[in-house]
Amino acid sequence: MINIKDLPDEELFTPGHTACPGCGVAQAVRNLMKVLGKNTVVYLPANCLLVFSATYPLDAFKVPYLHLLFENSGVAAAGIRRALRKLGKNDVNVVALAGDGGTADIGMQALSGAAERNEDIIYVMVDNEAYMNTGIQRSGSTPFGAWTTTTPVGKKIKGKMEHKKDVMKIMMAHEVPYAATVSPAFPADMLRKFEKVKNKHGFRFLQIYTTCPTGWRAPSEKTITLARMAVETGIFPLLEYEDGVLKVNYRPKGKYTVEEYLKAQGRFKHFTPEMMEEVKHWIEMKWRWIRTIEEGQKALEQEE
Ligand SMILES: Cc1ncc(C[n+]2csc(CCOP(=O)(O)OP(=O)(O)O)c2C)c(N)n1
Ligand code: SF4
Ligand SMILES: [Mg+2]
Fold first, then answer.
1. What pLDDT, in 10s, does the model give residues 44-57?
2. If we measure between CA atoms, which residue out of 174, 211, 181 comes closest to residue 196?
3. Which ligand sits closest to the CA of 128?
4. Atom 6 (ligand 2): residue with closest C-alpha?
5. What CATH number did the domain enclosing 183 receive?
6. Is a pLDDT exceeding 90 seen at residue 187?
7. By residue range, what is the domain housing residue 53?
């Protein structure tokens, strides 16, 4: 299993790009590229990553990349795979690096089709929980109560009134060969999952929790701490779905409270006690669903 110390020194996603200080997206992509290696083609829809790393004539990627449209990552990456196949190049990693807006909302149709056809691609949802590139608008993946420029905070309305869409569950419903959630605060688990998607075939999906200090109104040095807090509070479960079986990769040990997580970010600073309770209830429901699946799987194993 790959260790963070074993990662190659060579940067395939180089410094000098224009991401904000502490950007979780840049950090995650840098490590992913080190694991995938040179033999990789990247698809980039419109998102922060494209703008800060791939605007001609400057680019941070040291591998070929293609940008077409915001909404078509699933189908564009599938097209790259098919073109490579025609050229007889069957050993190349094809990876789409799409934002949460480009995945949970506008790209869902192309993503669903690619997953259902079991296209031989790696699809990464870079989840910074809003449309950041265009000025912090809410997405389906924005969490409950978060302030964004389209979910303002006033006397009656207090940020986004709906909960975060669960894209991992949607991918499981497609019965894809592999889907997992990833936190940069758990590097061993993260690198193992990066290696897994590199070595498997068929449709592979990763949802990476990527802190956005700018959009979350959080200090840039808290990028990893926030990623850890999200897992420890149960807000962002570390999961892995492989060949029809769901695994929990880490059980929260309660090292941080939900209140601590929310108070560390300006986007939640208007939270009332009732809103805190709503978040806790949502976490409970999420974990109840996970436990139900786990118990069902255990019962089946015992029967077999
Ligand atoms: C069809 C279409 N609608 C809207 C846009 C404008 N647009 C470009 S990037 C973007 C936001 C991307 O959000 P997300 O996918 O979450 O990535 P992030 O910027 O947060 O990394 C939007 C709305 C576009 N390029 N194409
Ligand atoms: S707005 Fe957020 S996601 Fe975009 S570059 Fe800045 S920190 Fe990264
Ligand atoms: Mg986003």
1. 999 999 999 998 88
2. 181
3. 3
4. 20
5. 3.40.50.970
6. yes
7. 4-303
